[in-house]
Amino acid sequence: MSSKSSHTAISGAGLLIALGIIYGDIGTSPLYVMKAIVPALIDPKLVLGGISCVIWTLTLQTTIKYVLLTLNADNNGEGGIFSLYALVRRRGAWLSAVAIIGGAALLADGVITPPISVASAIEGLQAKYPSIPTVPIVIGIIAGLFLLQSFGTQIVGKAFGPIMFLWFSMLGILGATWVAKAPIILQAFNPYYAYDLLVNYPGGFWLLGAVFLCTTGAEALYSDLGHCGKGNIRISWTFVKSTLLLNYLGQGAWLLSHQGQQLGGRNPFYELMPSWFLLPGIALATVAAIIASQALITGSFTLVAEAIRLNMWPKVKLNYPTDVKGQLYVPSMNRLLLLGCIGIVLYFRESSNMEAAYGLAITLTMLMTTILLTMWLWRIKRVTPPLIVLFVLVYGLIEGAFLVANLVKFPHGGWVSLAIGAALMAVMYVWLKAYYIKRRLTDFVKMEPYIEPLKQLSNDESIGKYATHLVFLTSAERPSEIEQKIIYSIFQKRPKRADIYWFIHVDTTDEPYTMEYKVTELASDDVFRINFRLGFRVQQRINLFFRKVVEDLVRNKEVDITSRYSSLSQRHVVGDFRFVVLEKYLSIENDFPTIEKLVMQSYFYLKQFISGEAQYFGLDTSSVKVEKVPLVITPVREVALTRIK
């Protein structure tokens, strides 16, 4: 099967997987959306208008924009805002700012998703046990969920699909039961009721902030594209959307049957359940909320891994706990998310308070996706300008309205997600800016003049041998160049004599799973350069990849890795391999421009809290030498020294 067809192929297993990992966030939104839209007095105009807004938001935003349009913008089958950015980033340097804002906002709002989902489910217990303390239960479930991440979710993941199928079936059946009792709620399909609520109902426009909660999972849907393909997502979305609409309509029917009354803290979602089903319903809602949280955590790990490959995040340690393609575990991000989620629960305590903060940051992500998608339609797909203008006008208006309406949430807790997002944006900006500053200031020299000196050094027996095989990581993109600091390390810092010198360059491609390499022999049996081309979702296991390349070269008789010590050579002992990693530090001999000074000071401050490049690239720490080299941005030119006798 071709790569392209595999992204669109439809299968029963694929549909079940899609239910399990794609729709967790959007699938648990019925737990809190109607409670947010109708907070107190049950007004028929508010109910019909609110349900109508939900129906058309799911149709215009989730179905048309994301399921039908955005899923087409896949990067070799992978989705998400960074995958979309990778497709269009060569069309303008300013697009990096768009990607940073969108990615940081998605991570920030993700800190609220597990608490609000789990809290909304657990608070259903208060209908049966009014005095039960929910905060410790919510924190316990969230802590347990994060502690399980290091083991991977391969086994648990197989159960996600059937459980979510039960969940969506329950949503549909409960909703249909109440729709049959009050079919008048079907009038909500008429968009006039949405218009009437937004234009004529007092404060109706500001209710868009609550309505928006029904589509917050659309961005996660796009991010998880690579797990099961657009074909399975589109087919399964038909079932998912039908059950969601039935449940929202059912909640509306229940509300209409109690019009004129105060909601009084009751959750319309749980009111649909007969009393005998309440505990099983709460249990299923809790499991669905955990699955929703799991999908979001996994998505956050993927987002961070992509940001690292795009030089927008520190090179933190990445683990791959199972052999499932694309599944990874980021220990540092797991700890940050856990602390963030516990902090959110302790600060807001109840899901109704979290609703006031939820959704503000994700509107920024959706707007940023719209900008990147517009560039993709215009510059990559060459869509005609009138259609692009129509797309920008429609979704600029819709998402602009959602953003304005969500700004009401700022003083009620929305500032929390924006503050987290701003901190993440600052880290991404500093890391990307520092990357470009370092690249600009790295001195490259031609490799050719140093080939003969390297051969002479290799044969100079007056110098003790540093290693049989000496391996350097180089950022020089051209095989004909090398960093000046590497030449300095080999010849001057301490002459490093070796039998064979290896220079490894890693090039991260815009495709997700590229795994290619090229070998350039710079000096026969003495100096080699290996250029790896790895996709932005491939784990950087350079130690393993390098060993595989050397084995291929030996098999093809292109290199002899036997130790050249005479006593060892007779016994065909393989020589030792030693990696040298050069890490920069900020030299005190600098006279900075103000912006670069702040950026680089922030960069090196953050760098002290993360593991080094050797760990990120998957190098064997027992054979790695880390050398510190000064980074001089602008040397101080005037030194007022006077010689005296």
TrEMBL record:
Highest taxon listed in the record's lineage: Bacteria
UniProt keywords, alphabetically: Cell membrane, Ion transport, Membrane, Potassium, Potassium transport, Symport, Transmembrane, Transmembrane helix, Transport
Transmembrane portions of the chain: 48-71, 92-112, 132-151, 163-185, 205-223, 235-256, 276-308, 328-348, 360-378, 387-408, 414-432
K+ potassium transporter C-terminal domain mapped to chain residues: 468-624
Membrane topology listed for this record: Multi-pass membrane protein
Pfam families recorded: K_trans (PF02705), K_trans_C (PF22776)
Domain K+ potassium transporter integral membrane per the UniProt entry, residue ranges: 16-440
Localization in the cell: Cell membrane; Membrane
Known catalytic reactions: K(+)(in) + H(+)(in) = K(+)(out) + H(+)(out)
Family: Belongs to the HAK/KUP transporter (TC 2.A.72) family.
Protein function: Transport of potassium into the cell. Likely operates as a K(+):H(+) symporter.
Name of the featured protein: Probable potassium transport system protein Kup
